[in-house]
Each structure stands twice: as structure tokens, then as C-alpha cells.
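Minutes, project check-in

Agenda point 3 was the complex the collaborators sent over. CS summarized: two entities, 444 residues total, and the question is how they sit relative to each other. Sequences were read into the notes so everyone works from the same version.
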Amino acid sequence: MIELLDPTVQPNTTLAETLAYAPRPVSLTGKRVALIENTKFKSDRLLQRIGELLKADYGAAETRMWRKHNASVPAHEEIVTEIRASSDVMVAGIGD
Amino acid sequence: MTSPLTSSRHPVADPGEAIEYCFAQGWTDGLPVVPPTLDRVEAMLAAAQLDPACEIAHIVHRDVSVTAEKVAINAVLAGCLPAYMPVVVAAVEAIGDPRWSYHGPGTSTAGAGVLIVVNGPAARELDVNAGDNLFGPGWRANLTIGRAVRLVMRNVCGSMPGFLDRGTLGHPGKLSYVIAENEAESPWTPLHVERGLQADQSAVTVMAAEAPHQFYNQLSRTAVGVLTTLADDMRISGNVMGQTQYLLVLAGEHMRTIAADGWDKARIREFVFAHTQNSHAHLKRTERMAGAILPGDETRMRPLVGSPDDILVVASGGRAGAFSAYVPGWGSARASQAVTVEIKEVRS
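CS then shared the predicted structure for the full assembly.
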């Protein structure tokens, strides 16, 4: 009999089990929506359209767009702080 | 005082079963691995004089701490000799550097490999190939050091192909992508010295990279001739609009031709930078740049890279054959940059 050492850090945990979502608002009516643009081609246009739909169809009060440094990094602290102070919900995503 | 090894243990009957067990656990890249037994892992750690609990890298975006113990286990899996461990450790440190920015190259659809250039005395002592069949096969150090780094990415950092590693195509270098610079025959300043280290130090330079592109020039006896061919091949390559970094790999014949004209690496960089620019009109006609062609677009030029310093140059490859290669970096230089880390025989 021989023993093998486990090369992984979380052998029994999948990523899905470690993800936690922020609580969702019951309604978007009157909410301030932050749109986080990831710099990919036309992502600003896509988010602009999403923002328009959230206002027209779901009653969001306002939308404002923020821009990450690039698509491969998390939103930087400066805009996270600003979004936290000025928005109720945010829309972030990645698209190619 | 040495910390105890904390990884969980998996009993198996014999080495044959161990190899199949590792496949079944999802610990391998598709090739058989060396069973990571306690004695092998301890030999790996001892070779680099590392405490198992030592943190080699912290992958910020994934909040993963990569310890020496996990690096050692994966280096065993990959088939490394214990003497390779300091090189693997330096490369893992490099991919944890914020400038390399793990999350992009570790997950992207654009399918980056981890290109590792080894410089200095360690490259020669460990027989890291810098000559014939540069990109493989044939040399244990080249094929196992990069494999160990990739297994760390898979098993520790979560870059599982088809899950977090979503490379659309990937490339063979994602198995292992390690070369050395041919410092013994090169007329030029070694890469690690250009990047701030001393010639008698050893180092890895790690770049998120696409596959190598070979180009031919079997006619020229001049630096301008060879590099004109290179630039013409390279001008439309990689993420043309992304302005990535590039690695130029100049093999024996081309190296001697260019050096005979008295060109150094800086001059090579300047020439290639100047001759790999594309007109906005061409980029628009070929659907790489958005928008209609405007007056002046035929002569308005966009550089392939942000600056000459984004072109890394090494002398590597076989002595015979009028071929060299360029390697486009992944994504863009804004998203990930090559990182050079000293290989330390003893880590403090």
C-alpha cells in the first residue's frame, strides 16, 4: 500500500458551492443602477441598452456607467467605493 | 522548524493503481503522472530548502494561497527532478505577480499558455534546452517544469480546462512551454540582464502567450533582410488590435546574420516596432478595426505593440536552419505583462 498526497486545495468543494450572491431587491422601481463596462468591444452599447430597458420596463430611477481598467481584472477599488455610495444595484458582466 | 505536511492522504495498492487513481481524481492534464508519495514530495521541498507552509504566491483574484507543499506535490506529478523545484517555484511566484494578472491568462477564451524563458547558470546546470527542437520534444526540464506550473494552475488555482480555463482553442504549449536562452552562443545581452538582474543570477521570465509562429528567411545575409521578413510575417498576428507583448526567438543562422551586421537587441526591437505597424485603412478593410475608412486612414498607422520595449528578444533554437519564431502575447499588455523572477537556490 502506498499513500498519495492530494495536489488540490479544495478537493471536495466546487466553485459553485463557494459563490455567494448579494441579496436581490424585490423591485427595481426607483432604484439607482450602476452599469459596469468592461472595455470589451461594444460592451458600452449593450449596457446602455440594458439601462434603458431597466428604466422603461422596470421603473429604475437612473443609470450611470462606470468603466473598469480592463476586462480581465476586477473593478478597481475607486469605482467600487463610488458605486457603493451612489447606487442601489449594479449590472456587471462580460461579453465577447 | 519544519511545518508538517497537511495535504490529505489517499491510499492506493501500488504505483499502477496510483497512476489511474490520479486520472480518476481529475489531477492530471491528460498524461500519466508520477505518484506524489511522501518521500518524493519531501525530496522536492528539500531541494529548494522550503518549508511546506511557505506561501509561494497569492492569486488575488481567486483568493488562493499557493503553498510550497502544493507546488511540490504538483512538481512530483509533473515528473520534475527535485533540482527543478527552485525554477518551478520562481515561475509560480511570477504568475502570482499582479503585473501578470492571473485571472485573464488563467481563464481566457483566447487560450494563453505560460511561456517560461529560463536564463542564467540554472538553465545550463539543469539542461534546459536552448537549441535544437527548442519548443520540444526531448528535454525533461523543458517538458516537466512548465507542466508543473500548469498542474498548479489546474489543481490549486482552479484553472480547470472546460470550467474556469475556457480557452476556445488552447495550444500545445499549454502542456509545457519552457525554453532557455542560448547564452553560450548568443552575442547579445541575456534577457534577464536586460530586465535588471545580473548575468550570474538565474531567472525565469514568464509571459502569457499564444503558440510560436515560425518564419522562413533563407535568402538574406543582412539584419535588415531577416528582420524585414519577420516584420512582414508578424504584422498581422495575434490580437492585432490588442497591443500585446511579443517574444522574438532568433535561432542560430538568423542570430549570426543579424549579429554580423552589428545589431544589438535594442536595435532589433526598434526596427521590428517600426515595421510591424498597420494602416487604419487596412485594419478597417479587414474587419479588425471598427468604423468606416476615413480620409487619412491609408497613412494613419497603428503600432502592433505599445512600444519597442514590449518586444522581448532571445537567442534560442538550433544552430542550423534559417528559421526563427515570434510569439504573440495573450490579450493585451494592459491586461498582462511578462514578469521576471530570480531563481533562488535558497529562499529567505
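Noted in discussion: Chain B touches chain A through 46 residues (CB under 8 Å).
Follow-up: revisit at the next meeting once the mutant set is ready.
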